[in-house]
Hints:
mainly beta; 0% helix; two-stranded antiparallel sheet
Amino acid sequence: MGRRRIVQLGGQSLAASASAGRARVAFDPGTVAVDDGAGGAIAVTLAPVESWSWGAGLAVERPLSASWSAGVEGDFGRYAMDTAHRAGEEIVREETAFTDWGVRLVLGWNTAPTGRGTSQ
């Protein structure tokens, strides 16, 4: 993930972020028993599923004092996975895209030295 300030105006700043990676869904236990309707069971293996994922976001931040700042961040991520579902009597297999949105209020504390009280 990367984040870069793109505009700073009057103490406020606007930053953009971007991310890319792999999404993985794994199951524990990796097998389940499904009733076969005749009194028996069929063991079904649940293999891990992986997909590339990516995202982007924007953040606005404003200093409240020399040590504190506040802001709001918004981002989204997207990935696609092969899915299967029943439509009547038919099993439909298709790639389905999923999107995740997020918004956060941020309160930050700057711990960087200000130069006051340090020896030279």
